[in-house]
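Summary of Year 1 activities. Much of the first year was spent building the evaluation harness for sequence design. The harness presents a backbone, in tokenized form, and records the residue chosen at every position. We chose the following record to illustrate the format because it has been used consistently in internal testing since the harness was completed.
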């Protein structure tokens, strides 16, 4: 797979062979045998370049996941050593609760400076899938979320629902935004159906009559759309509160809606020492 990924990167058997410090005929034979074993063609020639077929593109994505997982397994096998090293991988959306995560990570790094912390930002569905594949150790989810098979700590009322707008918008003069202020306005709503249900409860019978201009899975891009006059993003405060207020401002909904965030990890899974120490740190923070 490493040979395959190198050819995919270089788009040339000759350049890939140089990178791998083997001869070009040897590399060609290895990958020809690999294709025969799989029963598919992984590369097609285009001019002087070797490009991936559709099957090759699929294999590339899976190969990267497999090699990443291989590295994590090796880290876990080394975890019994006295010095704590390795990587702890988080997955999360754009939550204000990341500020709490930052405090936990800062305290953790003071104790275990050799551990690298990686953060993947994506939607809950993608993070959940990565967690199940072992590519994410610990995840932050906004409730409601299915916590079956997970251990977690809950950060209550960690985010407020808000509406974003340009600073020159008339709604920016208000201290808070009520339902009547949004009726008839083009709105940008979160993608997750479970999250939309929270808004449906707040809007009540008027939810079905809303002018939904756009759907966005992450708040930052929704903010970009709003800054360009395409609508009003209704979402949790998240990372957008760090935007410059001469570009975008936020006003909380009234009556207020708050969101709970859970920091979760899979139950009964053997983790590396680095991850176990992080879980200990998070539980201590909760206490």
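For this record, the design step produced the sequence shown next.
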């Amino acid at each position: 797979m490493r040979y395959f990924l190198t050819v995919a990167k270089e788009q040339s058997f000759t350049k890939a062979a140089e990178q791998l410090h083997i001869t070009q005929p040897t590399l060609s034979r290895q990958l020809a045998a690999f294709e025969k074993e799989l029963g598919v063609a992984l590369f097609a020639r285009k001019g002087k370049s070797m490009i991936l077929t559709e099957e090759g593109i699929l294999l590339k994505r899976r190969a990267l996941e497999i090699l990443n997982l291989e590295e994590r397994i090796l880290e876990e096998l080394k975890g019994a050593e006295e010095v704590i090293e390795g990587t702890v991988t988080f997955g999360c959306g754009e939550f204000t609760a990341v500020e709490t995560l930052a405090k936990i990570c800062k305290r953790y790094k003071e104790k275990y400076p050799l551990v690298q912390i990686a953060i993947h930002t994506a939607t809950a569905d993608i993070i959940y899938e990565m967690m199940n594949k072992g590519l994410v150790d610990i995840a932050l989810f906004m409730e409601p979320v299915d916590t079956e098979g997970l251990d977690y700590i809950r950060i209550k009322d960690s985010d407020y629902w808000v509406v974003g707008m340009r600073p020159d918008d008339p709604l920016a003069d208000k201290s808070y935004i009520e339902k009547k202020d949004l009726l008839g306005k083009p709105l940008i709503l979160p993608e997750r159906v479970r999250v939309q249900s929270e808004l449906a409860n707040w809007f009540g019978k008027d939810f079905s009559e809303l002018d939904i201009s756009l759907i966005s899975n992450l708040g930052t891009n929704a903010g970009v759309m709003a800054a360009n006059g395409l609508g009003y993003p209704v979402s949790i405060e998240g990372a957008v509160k760090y935007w410059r207020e001469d570009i975008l401002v936020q006003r909380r909904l009234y009556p207020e809606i708050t969101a709970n965030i859970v920091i979760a990890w899979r139950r009964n899974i053997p983790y590396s020492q680095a991850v176990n120490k992080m879980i200990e740190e998070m539980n201590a923070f909760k206490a």
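The first strand starts at residue 43 and ends at 46. Quantitative recovery figures across the full test set are reported in Table 2.
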